[in-house]
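User: I'll paste a sequence; please echo it back and then give the predicted structure.

Assistant: Echoing your sequence first, then the prediction.
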Amino acid sequence: MRVVSPLQPSTSAPTPTRPKFDVDLLKSYMKKLISTTLEKERWDSKDKDKQRAWCKEISERVKGRMLEIQPKGFKFIVTTIINENLGQGGRADMASHWEDCDTVAQEMWANSGSLSLEIAIDLRWWSPLADILDQVIDALLPHKDRWASFALQTNSDDGVMAGILGMAPQHNALVVSALPSLASVSIADTSLRWSDWSTLLQHGPKLVELVLRNVDIGRAGDLGNVPPVSMPHLERFALRLKTGRSGPTGTALLDPVVASFFAPKLHTLLVNVTGAGTAPPPNHTWQEAMPMLKTLVIQTEGDIDASVFQRCPHISHISVSDSRLEGHPLARRILEHLADPSTGPLLDQLDTLTLLAMIPTYEGWEKFLSGKKLRVCIDPVFEIATRKSMDTKNLQDREAAIEKLKAIVPVEICPIPKDNTWFSNRWRFGGDD
């Protein structure tokens, strides 16, 4: 059997020529327009309405002239930006055009209503009035079913937290209304009542990632004896409580928070546990709340609450970062805590120990690590800083100690590979988490 291809259409038909746009004609018009519009005006940084009017007028008139030059065959966006001095302040406006038959443009706007939204509100430097806050909430609420993530950073004293979370009756319920569809929530630099925390859990069954950074959480007793809330999809949880006014942050302060939820898929936990606290484990264990927990990230400030290791007896990866430069003894104390019989000891089962932002001393480590399958990762920045301050003899001794340790356990003084299972960095707001 012979297969014959269908006849191809004739290529002799003339191809329609694409219209050309007279750019030079537009340039001369724009030069004259800007001159006549702004030559008698004065910049007033406080007159936002006038700046907005300039941008809008120029954009619309340029768009109109472009349509006069070539009314068909083009789609375009005209953006006008007016900056003050070196660009530290200004206004902008946009005017666009496309033909009704433009399939690409029509499809883009028709499908935008089905795209997921990532919402970020930063109120660190601005405390909005109640009516302005309500306007923002009213604009966002109609699209709550499309929210994929929500990030909020505010000032704990600005009084808008209740409005954002929807706990105050005079405000619309912004986060509470959207929580059922959210996969990621990040809240930083604020105060949460215990009822606010409970609301986050009760209304967020689809949460995969929850980040609370530099947050105060009220007393657990405010709600009484409430059973744990199931968080079936939660995989990553960061809980960095505020320190300072209330003293060190130990594991005892974290216990009520952990006891308030059950997360069967949670595999990564970040906490800040500072101080030499030795609070005994509570009746409920962290392992019961997070049975799949494998990675524990600890942020500390010069010391560490050793009882955190007792609460996580089944983890395989530990990362500890120290915010202070006086980190020489901390690395050794961590090894002592991990080798303590009360922790299991954890050193017998760990796969990776990562020490970030600290300067370890390696002398005597072999007695802790001999026979272990552990891999130790050291922050290179602080290692380099240490070596620069050493004379030749001390540097030789340090090299010898490292080589001696490498014969026992793998030690990597190299950049720590980023774990893509850790928290997304979309909404850090310049933070250090």
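The longest strand covers residues 76-84. Residues 48-69 form the longest helix (22 residues).
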